[in-house]
Design brief:
The chain is mostly helical. Helices cover 59% and strands 3% of the residues. It has helices at 2-7, 11-32, 41-60, 64-67, 72-81, 96-111, 118-138, 143-148, 150-158, 171-176, 181-184, 193-199, 257-261, 276-279, 294-312, 316-329, 334-365, 371-378, 383-401, 405-415, 434-463, 467-493, and strands spanning 164-168, 186-187, 232-234, 267-271. It has a two-stranded antiparallel sheet with strand order 1-4. A two-stranded antiparallel sheet has the order 2-3. Helix 3 (41-60) crosses helix 7, helix 6 (96-111) crosses helix 17 and helix 19 packs antiparallel against helix 21 (434-463). The longest helix is centred in the last third of the chain and has 32 residues, at 334-365. 47% of the residues are buried. The structure holds iron/sulfur cluster (2 copies).
Length: 505
């Protein structure tokens, strides 16, 4: 049933339309509804439901929320009416900008208490729509998703532990395929022929530039650039991921363009071993080798450490720390103290801990190479642990406040003069008994730790000459992961500030 639905040409548009409708409701309620967060869709749906369902989807399926992303619908209109012909500057074709925007997102979330301001949440959503529209209206391909979108970067990295990926079914079919529609797109007869003719020429050049100029890498047929949109029947991958060389979920928005473009039905959403892609390090189409990309390692580490900093921002001890920082710095404005807080939590502490683990790992195993190389290789092992912490945190909010949406929608309908039913207009909204929450959180965190240890050891086996050296190289990373998991348990034991519900601390 799912396969049939996904093969439907308008499946993504259908899902996006539902989310676009929800986004419009959120913005309207955010601007014109009550400004108490638990009484407003903008205070509840994005911060309680969306985040909770995002981690659930990543855990059991994959990057479904990029697939259904509503910001991409107006962008499609932009591609039609704006030139969309500029190539994203080469200097910006990395994840550094995405890292900076993600930090900005985390900081503004706390600094402006976005979760408690429906009005600001509505403006954030509108800003997102405008940015996606403008950036992709002037630049080729999915520039916004690949290089800028903070939410997308979060999904890309955490999607690496998902049990599915968009992949080819049979490599032999791709070997004999001459059109490579999965990346070039499918054209009407008479259009895009230059690329096809040249595409049948043989195996000389080994790269293909994606539509935004990002190398798709390791292309073994022939070169070709985007042939433009004239005569285009079905777009190919706009994120420069060439299916036969694609590995894992990094940079994949699950947009399904390649699935629809492949003339041989050779691409699908396939089940795989979760987190396996964290261990493997081939040259990935559109990405390269992840162990050679400091920007990607920085993104992965940011997302891991932000899981702990984000949860720390909601527990009681943080308020004492913030007061102390404000008094010490004599700056009463919270956003300024938060810069320091995030600087320590997302840069100072990670550099210290990861740098120490990398040094110890190199010293113990007698390994060569720079510390940066070692960090770029082993940073990926921490992703499952970070995801475990995000999942524990976000599911806590969803499970403790998810049902608050029922009276909210009822109130919304009543406000519109529609029959909304009766019942209490506010409540705690718990979805499961309270006693279930902590064991579930611990299970998620410990599951993440277990996967981190497995992945870390297998990375060490890949990087070191012998099993003994691998064990020694892995040891400091195992200590770091166990320490972080301990910090996670401590955080989960703290009274957590409730968001989106009326429950007291
Ligand atoms: S995925 Fe389909 S279009 Fe792409 S190379 Fe393979 S067979 Fe060709
Ligand atoms: S077209 Fe590219 S981004 Fe979209 S699902 Fe296929 S590989 Fe992923």
């Amino acid at each position: 049933m799912i396969g049939t639905f996904l093969r439907w040409r308008h499946a993504r548009t259908f899902l996006q339309s539902i989310f676009l409708g929800l986004a419009v409701l959120i913005m309207l309620d955010g601007w014109f509804g009550p400004q108490l967060a638990p009484l407003n869709l903008a205070g509840v749906l994005p911060w309680v439901h969306w985040r909770g369902f995002v981690v659930l989807a990543l855990l059991v399926m994959g990057n479904l929320f990029c697939m259904a992303c509503p910001f991409m619908l107006p962008r499609r209109v932009a591609k039609r009416f704006l030139p969309a012909d500029r190539v994203w500057p080469r200097a910006l074709r990395s994840k550094w900008l995405g890292v900076a925007l993600l930090i900005l997102f985390f900081w503004s979330y706390e600094a402006f208490s976005l979760w408690s301001s429906p009005w600001l949440t509505a403006w954030v959503a509108l800003t997102y729509f405008v940015l996606a529209f403008v950036i992709d209206g002037f630049f080729k391909g999915a520039t916004f998703c690949k290089h800028l979108c903070p939410i997308g970067q979060f999904h890309f990295v955490n999607g690496m532990i998902s049990p599915t990926e968009v992949a080819i079914r049979d490599p032999a079919v791709c070997e004999t395929c001459t059109t490579k529609d999965c990346i070039r797109g499918r054209y009407a007869p008479g259009f895009g022929t230059e690329a096809r003719t040249r595409g049948q020429g043989g195996r000389s050049p080994i790269r293909l530039d994606g539509v935004d100029g990002t190398p798709a890498l390791a292309w073994d047929a022939a070169p070709g650039r985007s042939m433009g949109r004239e005569g285009l029947l079905q777009g190919g991958c706009e994120l420069a991921l060439y299916q036969p060389r694609k590995e894992g979920n990094l940079d994949c928005t699950f947009c399904m363009e390649c699935i629809h473009a492949c003339p041989y039905d050779n691409v699908g959403i396939l089940v795989r071993s979760p987190a396996r892609e964290l261990v493997r390090d081939p040259v990935r189409s559109g990405v390269g080798r992840i162990s050679r990309r400091p920007d990607l390692a920085a993104l992965a580490l940011l997302i891991v450490f932000a899981a702990f900093v984000n949860a720390f921002g909601m527990v009681e001890p943080v308020f004492a720390l913030q007061s102390w920082l404000a008094a010490t710095l004599a700056v009463p404005w919270e956003p300024v103290t938060l810069v320091l807080f995030f600087g320590i939590g997302l840069a100072g502490v990670p550099l210290l801990l990861v740098g120490t683990a990398a040094s110890a790992s190199r010293a113990l195993s007698g390994g060569k190479g720079t510390l940066s190389d070692r960090i770029c290789s082993y940073a990926w092992a921490l992703v499952p642990l970070g995801f475990g912490m995000w999942a524990a945190h976000y599911l806590f909010h969803l499970l403790t406040g998810g049902l608050v949406v029922v009276p909210l929608f009822r109130e919304y309908l009543t406000d519109l003069g529609l029959p909304g039913g009766t019942g209490p207009m506010a409540g705690t909204g718990a979805m499961v008994p309270e006693s279930w929450i902590f064991p579930l959180e611990v299970l998620l965190l410990q599951g993440g730790l277990f996967l981190t240890l497995v992945v870390g050891y297998r990375i060490a086996l890949r990087e070191e000459d012998s099993g003994r050296k691998a064990g020694l190289a892995f040891l400091p990373w195992a200590v770091l992961a166990t320490f972080l998991a301990g910090v996670g348990i401590w955080l989960l034991l703290q009274p957590m500030e409730m968001r989106g519900t009326f429950q007291p601390i």
